[in-house]
Amino acid sequence: MKIVAADVQKRFVLSGKQRISSDGTETAELQVLKDFNLQVNAGEFLVIVGPSGCGKSVFLNILGGLAHKTDGSVTIDGNEVTEPNEQLGYVFQQYALFPWRTALSNIEYPLEIRGVNAAERQKKARDLLRLIGLTSFEKWRPNQLSGGMQQRIAIARALAINPEVLLMDEPFAALDNQTRELLQVELLRIWEGIHNTVVFVTHSIEEAVFLADRVVIMTSRPGKVKEIVSINIPRPRNDYTRSSTKFAGYRQRVWDILKDEVYKTQDNMEKSALSSQL
Amino acid sequence: MKKMGAYFCSWRAGAFRKTRLNPAAFLARYRNFFSGVPLIFFFCLLWEILPRIGVLNPIFFPPFSEVLLALGALIHSGTLLKHIGSSLFRAMAGFLLAVLAAGPLGFLMGYSRKFERAADLLVQTLRNVSQFALLPVFIMLFGIGEISKIGLTFYASVWHMLINTISGVKNVDPMLIRAAVSMRTSKKDLFWKIIMPASFPSVVAGMRLGGRSAMMAVIGAEMIAAKSGVGYFVQYSQLIYHFPDMYAGIIVLCFLGLVLNYFLVWIERRATSWKIQNEEIKN
Q: Which of A272, B30, B32, B213 to pair with B170, CA 20 to 30 A apart?
């Protein structure tokens, strides 16, 4: 499915103490996205990186139908997004599994609310458990599992409806480094089997370069697209990809584009910290 | 309710795997209980000795053995069982009515901000009125029969459950709601499949508190206005100077309270097993 975002604006109305803006002046509104334009092609793995607070997750929320834009247009296959799309899978940083459900029935959930019968949805859920390598954990509950296992299940849950679009909001940010690299490889392995459209938000440049067809670099707040870098590293990618010179080159390039924005964000944070002390 | 039953069972299945216990494991599992036994024994010993050596007046404080004998006789004659039966009946009736009232009302108040804002002050006001202060009102309205005591028990336990249900619904992790909404969960499914199970542990905790209060209220009400029940029996025994019987009644109350509390804790642990970490469950 093709995604088009045109001139998207997102402003939050501030109240009380929040009224100090990042440069120390008082404002009633916080502009998070400003003239945000982006096209995502069908079947593309797109990764958005940007300094913290740049609005990358906000854009994902708008695209997922979980937040409203202030102005502009976001369409999926030509249809304006006003609520979560039927063809959409969403993976959150905090896993957001239902703790009272077992691994299996968590994966069944999106099928269950769509009225799929028990036998069929269990079969689908078991297939997905096999795909993520957690077959023997089907009866386990989320709080009995490690973070990496929980996120695998959350990904399986998002995939249960065979979504044409998969949105991932810093899904590996809460995991330790080794688990994160493992899951990146696994995600690519799974994605290469289905090749749907993925919009993936992260603050890790390595992760972005490793996963993406294209990396979108955002400016500091108010966020918009600063530059898009196509990553021409052949697939399937694996652990050796990370040590290739090509990979290092892309990583450096993305960082060169991003670092000014990160410094700007840092400066603003210092300024606002100083001004709030006055 | 069928749906809730299914959740309940599925919670049990995963968390508490049945293991065969050898004696050592049995001791280890109930270590807390067994390590408390010596002190209880010491307490009973003091109770036995102090009246016998004259430190306490044996008329008002009969030795523990005499109380046990009285207890045995009362159980044997069936008197006590009759009183226990009527106390339990009142407590259960009031408690169940409170569950029926607090459940739906609590979910409604937790779910709708408007409704909660409108009702909160009334709830806070009413729940801070001691149930015993209302006993004269209940007697005036319903007479001295069962209904006034059941009403009082209801009043004593309903607030815990209402407050806990409301806070359970309000404190459902917003992340879970976002996840559910992102999957296009309908309003109806959101209530039955997310909010209900997510708030259930809090509801059950409210039931535990409510159950305790119901028991306490029944005893109090029986002491003031009743012709049966353990509370009445204790009060009556004191009036007619049957002190061993009075203490036997108190021991029964203590025992009932303990059993009720452990039972409710047991229910709560099962209902909330998905919140307990793996290591805890394995012990």
A: B213
Minimal-distance CA residue of chain A relative to B273:
A100
pLDDT tens for each residue of chain A, 278 residues long: 889 998 899 988 877 666 655 565 666 788 899 999 999 999 999 999 999 888 999 999 999 999 999 999 999 999 999 999 999 999 999 999 999 999 999 999 999 999 999 999 999 999 999 999 999 999 999 999 999 999 999 999 999 999 999 999 999 999 999 999 999 999 999 999 999 999 999 999 999 999 999 999 999 888 899 999 999 999 999 989 999 999 999 999 999 999 988 888 888 878 777 776 65
Nearest beta carbon to residue B182 from set A66, A139, A143: A66
Nearest CA in chain A to B7: A100
Closest CA to A159 of A187, A120, A200, A117: A187
Nearest CA in chain A to B199: A100
CB pairs under 8 A between A and B: 69
Contact A174, A94 (CB under 8 A): yes
What's the domain range around B41? 23-56
Residues B115 and B213 in one domain: yes
The number of folded domains in chain B is: 2
Is pTM beyond 0.90? Reply is no
How many angstroms from the chain centroid is the CA of residue B225? 22
Cβ distance B10 to A113 less than 8 Å, yes or no, reads no
Does the distance separating the beta carbons of A113 and B184 come in below 8 Å? Answer: yes
Q: Give the count of beta carbons closer than 10 Å to the beta carbon of residue A179.
A: 17
Q: How many CB atoms lie within 10 A of CB B228?
A: 18
Domains of chain A plus CATH, in order, are 3-87+176-277 (3.40.50.300), 97-162 (no CATH)
